[in-house]
Amino acid sequence: MGTVEELWRAGEMPLRDGLYRRDDTGSELHVDGPGAYHPDAGQPIPFRVGGLLDVVGAIEEDGVEVVDTNFESPLPDGSGRMSGGGGGMGNIGYLARLGADGSLRWIAVMFHSNPFVGVRYEGTSAVFTNDWGNLLPLDLESPELR
After folding, report:
1. What percent of the chain has pLDDT over 70?
2. For the stretch 119-133, what's the b/e string if a residue is b when 16 or more beta carbons lie within 10 angstroms of its beta carbon?
């Protein structure tokens, strides 16, 4: 079991923006915070996956945060669940994809997204909503999110 999966099982997540996989590989995430849109609820949250992330270095440098889960929702195809919520002082959001057995596949940590409170599914996409009503649509079939 890798460090990222151990953190998840302990109810924690890395504190740096990133897409962390259970095998301790990761990618940088670039996510603008909802403050750019407040008070205009319902706006999309920009989300871009970047280059490789040094997972161990990120955890050593920035530490970890307790996961505060707001929802878990079964995926329409039965392959697992999506989990979402936040942490910290209200500015951190996370999304996690879990397998059918409940094991972590990946967790996306976003320092300025605000906590996520819900999800709806549209085909292979999931549209997540944060606590300001802003939307983050993700294609769950894209290679980095499978």
Report:
1. 92
2. beeeeeebebbbbbb
